């Protein structure tokens, strides 16, 4: 009986730990070193002049990610020069989704002329630390001294199907607020996309 209680307790503790994985608004985000499609290794610390980042977990194959590609490009073009560049990360297992291979990432970045880095989270460690579950899944980070503070997590906007029907531009509203030194009104939304394909 005692063994059963220990087993149940271990299960509860493990479940609680798993449930706490990933960032929430206000968390301090970790930096990383991941390979870009140009073969170079990229870290957030490389961007000395940045005020923060729009970290976007995305991929090649997911229809939601594809639908948002032009909007992700537009976000970088609008905010990179203002101090909030896009950093795109593909976390998917190539064994599960061959379309998301590194070579295909290179092809996609070239064909779409991505103005931002497109990094390969081959071990999936960064996606797990951040708590990313979908593609796309966005984390708006702000530099506060030496730390990176999570200010927004979730969807890019409220309509993946039709950009002309978007009413709430969550990422833009968050970054605009940060640039104006105002609090972010909506700090989290449900990310809409394909589930990340884990190993």
Structure description:
There is one protein chain. With 199 residues, this protein is an alpha+beta fold. It has one domain: Glutaredoxin (3-Layer(aba) Sandwich), CATH 3.40.30.10. Helices cover 31% and strands 21% of the residues. The protein contains 5 helices and 10 strands. The chain has helices spanning 2-20, 63-79, 102-111, 125-130, 170-179, and strands at 28-29, 34-36, 41-42, 52-57, 86-90, 118-120, 134-135, 137-144, 147-154, 194-195. The strands form 2 sheets. The protein has an 8-stranded mixed β-sheet with strand order 1-9-8-4-5-6-2-3. β4, α2 and β5 (86-90) form a beta-alpha-beta unit. The longest helix is centred in the first third of the chain and has 19 residues, at 2-20. It is globular. It starts with a helix and ends with a strand.
Write a concise synopsis of the structure shown.
This protein is of the alpha+beta class and 199 residues long. It has five helices and ten strands, in the order H-E-E-E-E-H-E-H-E-H-E-E-E-H-E.
**How many separate helices?**
5
Q: In total, how many beta strands?
A: 10
The biggest sheet amounts to: 8 strands, mixed
Give the oligomeric state of the chains in this entry, treating copies of one chain as homo and distinct chains as hetero: single chain
Provide the spatial order of strands within the biggest beta sheet: 1-9-8-4-5-6-2-3
Mean pLDDT score? 92
Q: Give the proportion of residues in helices.
A: 25-40%
Look at the structure and name the CATH superfamily: Glutaredoxin
Structural class, judged by helices and strands? Answer: alpha+beta
- For the record, what CATH class applies? Alpha Beta
Radius of gyration: 18 Å
**How much of the residues is beta strand, in percent?**
15-25%
Write the CATH fold name: Glutaredoxin
Global shape: globular
Tally of discrete structural domains: 1
Distance between the termini: 36 Å
Order of helices and strands: HEEEEHEHEHEEEHE
CATH architecture identity: 3-Layer(aba) Sandwich
Low-confidence stretches: 2-20
